Amino acid sequence: MTDLTPKSLPHAKVQHRPGPNVDTNLALGWASLAAGALTGLVLGLWSFDGPVSVPAAIGEYGDLSRRLLRLGHIAFFGLGMLNIMLARHLAHSDMQRGRAVLALRSMNFGNLFLPLTLIVAAFVPVAKYLTCLPALAVTLALSIGALAAFRPVMKEYRK
Prior knowledge:
Largest sheet: 2 strands, antiparallel
Radius of gyration: 19 Å
Shape: elongated
Distance between the termini: 32 Å
CATH topology: Four Helix Bundle (Hemerythrin (Met), subunit A)
Strand content: under 5%
CATH architecture: Up-down Bundle
Order of helices and strands: EEHHHH
Strand order of the largest sheet: 1-2
Helix content: 55-70%
CATH class: Mainly Alpha
Number of helices: 4
Number of domains: 1
């Protein structure tokens, strides 16, 4: 069993009990932020009259394919930040281990596949229908995180 404290935060004060390992979520969250920066660099090549002309497959600024690319780019940033926040929060919560692991794994699935399906959907339009699966996973993960945040409040309220 691993300690709730992520290896990257050995100084954190946390209850010492077996819990979920959040290191994978932290690593994927930071990698997602880097992927967001990288996709931004690529998109910037043709944005705002950049040095490269817009590839024909991407279309004009308002076309769905180009909007899906921009959404995939920003999803890397947003989901990466949410993944890091969820991991740090669940590492210090008293959430049941099974629920915490479900939230962490769901968030990893959504963090990885939602931006990727959005980007793929820019080139393969039918792929846009696959975005609901990682979106549902993110929703589940954040709902469990919200439940974990409300548990101490409700315990205090019941006193």
